[in-house]
Amino acid sequence: MATIKVENLRKKYPNGFVAVHDINLEIEDQEFMVLVGPSGCAKSTTLKMVAGLEDISSGSIYIDGKKVNDLRPKDRDIAMVFQSYALYPHMTVKENISFGLKMRKHPVEEIEKRVAHASEMLGIKELLDRKPRQLSGGQRQRVALGRAVVRKPKVFLFDEPLSNLDAKLRVQMRSEIKKLHERLEATIIYVTHDQIEAMTMGSRIVLMKEGHIQQVGPPMELYNHPVSRFVAGFIGSPAMNFLDCRVEEDNGTFSIATNDFKLPLQDYQAEKVKDKIGEPLTFGIRPEDIRKKRNKKELYTEGFLKGSIEVVEPIGKEIGIEVSTGQDSFSAIVNSNAEVTAHEEIELVLNMDKIHLFEKEGNESALF
Fold first, then answer.
1. Is 222 inside any structural domain?
2. Which pTM does this prediction carry?
């Protein structure tokens, strides 16, 4: 397959709006890289510039070490799968899959072989004589994948390909695309707004915001070590809790103080924030890092607090709860065996190794 390198890539429109701000990115051979972010963050624009479907204002794009800025899309040896399946309605599945190869004047025997191999791999062998209108959404997406696979390109580009599918089918297709990546040993750039897709599919994630790259790394690195409040809030479901806080010190003991409670910091945490005493900060903790206190005699080193349950949401093996401590409120996830009822008092334990602190100024960078 191929490596991809993006250097100082910028997109500025005639009206002066800058969509992509001088981004730099390297994608390894056979890597599954996911571009993720909220609507309007320019992830699709970035993908289209790599594909040659969008002009770049400045910067360079290299595919397998070759600069492709001035190459037309068909000359970049890439294949793209769009959100809309873009199938020809008057053609059969077989004709749709083979159309690109015919346009490139591949031998008939080779076309037949490639179509047979792709249809077998994607489980659409029995559908080759059907027209797109006779197919389900998932089947149409497989045909679109087949059209890309038969090309045997250096790079596969996916632009939110699962957005039009229902939730159950999206899960199935996520798995199929991951298996396809392994079989083809392909280099893939995959764009999505869905952080669950990004977490479950990518070997690395590029999280974007307003045309800037916020963080690049393996999924669990972004989950466990977000570099900013934005990253922490975007990655993870349910979302991280955020509360206003400040660091306090009493006789050498450091703690986090919110409107309603105090939590003791461990020594390695205190070392990172000892110069932030009294400054306004943001405290973050994920719902899954909060649990119900098991018994009165329980020994623990974690943070401890009491609150009142406002909402109970059973979600199978776990229960989501909204807890109020007075002025503050937050979400927690407890085991389904936990006996919890709306409006009752609850004692909770926070895993203090999993807490985060963020600046309130600038990019709201993580302190830890």
1. yes
2. 0.90
